[in-house]
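haha ok so turns out i had the wrong file open the whole time. this is the CORRECT one, sorry everyone. sequence first:
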Amino acid sequence: MDIVLITAVIASLFLVIGTAEPLAARLRLPYSVILAIIGILIGSAATFFLRTELTDALNPVAEAILGLPIRSNVFLYVFLPTLLFQATLGMNLRRMLDDWVPIMVLAVVAVVVATLSVGYALAWASALPLAACLLIGAIVSTTDPSAVVSIFRSISAPRRLARIIEGESLLNDAAAIALFGLFMGFVMLGVPDPELGEALARFPVLIAGGAATGWLSAHAAIRIMTLFSNHERAQISVSVALPYLAYIGAEQSIGASGVIAVVAAGLTLNLTGPGRLPPQAWSNLREVWDLMAHWAGALIFILAALLIPRLLEGVRIGDFALIGVVILAAIAARAVILFGLLPLLALVRISPPVERPYRAAILWGGLRGAVTLALALAVTESFRVPVEVKRVVGILATGFTLFTLIVQGTTLRPVIGWLGLDRLSPMDEALSRQVVAVALQTVREDVARTTEDYKLTHETVRSEAKIFGDRLDEAVRTAEARAGILDRDRVTLGLIALAGHERDMILVRVRERTISARMAEQVLSDADRLIEGARTGGRSGYTRIARRSVAYGRTFRAAVALHSRIGISGPLVRLTADRFELLLSQRLILRDLDAFIDGRIRRIHGRRVADLLHDLLARRTDSVKTALEGLRLQYPGYAEELERRFIRRTALRLEEREYLAMREDGLIGAEVYTTLIQDLVARRTVAEARPPLDITLQRLDLVRQLPLFSDLDETALKRLGRALQTRHVNAGAVVLRKDAAAKGVYFIASGAVELESSGQTWRLGRGQMFGQVAILMRNPRRAEARAIAPSTLLLLDVVRFRSLLKKSAALQKAVRASAEHRGIDPDKLFADIPQEG
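then structure:
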């Protein structure tokens, strides 16, 4: 075939891609639906002109179109890894974990249920063997939610809903293709009725092998990319090779799922890449992959749609009834998951609830697309599959895909409108009014400065100012109108605006490199959680998320357990260093938010709301300072090193800005500028490296900070440091319960603890102890101890405490003072303890 003609056809397809997106926006239809329709029209027209006798002039073009090397392997080995890998790079993984239950239910459970539902329905309605029916079920169970996601974004649907659908789209392809591989093997081997248990038992093996391959491939690629730290294009080139090598390695080398390998590789790079690559290189890498995925997604739809006329050849009347069976079974299976299983999981608090209108939109938005057609094509190409099975698979998969694209795709936007999802809630309407009012006030100030700078005509300025002033007054009156919005909602709107500004400040700091790329994703995720917490829970939701951002999580506590019980320190070192940097970043951002409250929020919502927000912000700041002080006590030198690193990075940023200004002013040429920047980049690489953290001396450093042990010599301090155990507890955690056996004495290194006994409460802070009364009186505990702030505690067992008490006069004095404060006779505590001094 003429290479020139093929090149012209491919170039024309890119022209189609360029015009399809604005056409879809004009027609208000999903982009994927427009691409599919164009592809079907092109394929049908090529078939028509090749077979008609009206003209032979277009035969070469038609032959070139129909002769394109479109095979299933092109889709599975070229386009699919690109789409999956880019999707993983664009995911906010920390936020996805918040909704991992509904994502996994839709991506795995729904795929299995749809496969079984369609398979057994077809086995009942047709003469096909069960293996072939289950194969068809696996083919049609994968969804392409790009259409519904794009519509949700255009109507400003909650981000959480878009995350759930995007997470489903990423993982359900992997699950469906893994099931496809299983049942395809049974069909090619001629096994008509496979053992379902045996088939599903192989499923985890495919997934585990693919995940391991992807993880290892990604870590190897990251090592290579870090070696090329000064060669950005080399790093991007390695990232391009990664998904394809992972896919081929999993499929061809160990017989595992290549799709899972690509997903695992992408997730690994997403988690580790921002901390190992320069920020600009990571940003450019993401942009390259966004463009590649855009082209791949469009081409896969058009090329798959070109195959539809070929796949529908030989369709019979009875096939339409089977297509109806597939449609009903697939929709019913998805409805069972959305309206049966998800509400049940939300009822038992396993999964966060998903509102009914959104579940209905997800149900109708379960479009099928290019992946379904590619899998069907793979079946029709196999010479080991019976002819009748190939014919039915091609027709049913294609017919079902056409139904979802033409019927569901074209009616999706009206359905969303009927569900009321295209209308803003009263809260969002109020928020939009607030945004307009605040924006116009800022514009007025900027315009006033501009007109003064340019010395514009007074009459012109006055007439335009009057028009703009009227609009501004109307916007402010609308925003301040109390009709339809409660004071509680005003607080919520203020918190949403405050959290949104916090996110903007974080982005500015990341671009300035004041906040490192390693921590950028985490602090941005915390800001996103604050926005959603305020939107869904108001003041209490904002406060709850703010507490979580400084609390010791399960991962941190697990790392502490690994360190103290097994001696594995790596995870604790990394998480502690991350916590240090996170708290320093939060302190930096919180410092600048008070000005936003006074400058913006007070104008719209008044003094009372602004004062309340100031109070909430002050509490957040205090909790961050408390948590940071606790770490400073444990690792006094490390905090200083991080602050020195911050100063060095800030100085480098300012130095870079000065070089750029000198170049723009013509003071230095391109050669000098390049040399200076290369030297700066080398110094920045050193400054970006986080200092090492030594956690082995933590207890000894803490012991030296406590006045209770001030009279111990260095040898005794070291012995005590080895004997003490460190515990990190969150605010609200119960440290000691009433009537529990006395196991040791706690010393508060940082934070605060509240004791409650017989209706009385005592609050203890840094340097104080608790638990000693029950030990010395040999009675079960009658007090309950609860942390009222994130706290670091040191635990000393009973035997060592008694031994230490005999030697330390300072400790004896503290025990006496504590007993007198609680109304206990100190002499009873020291009945069997020899006193010194």
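The mean pLDDT is 77.
again sry for the mixup
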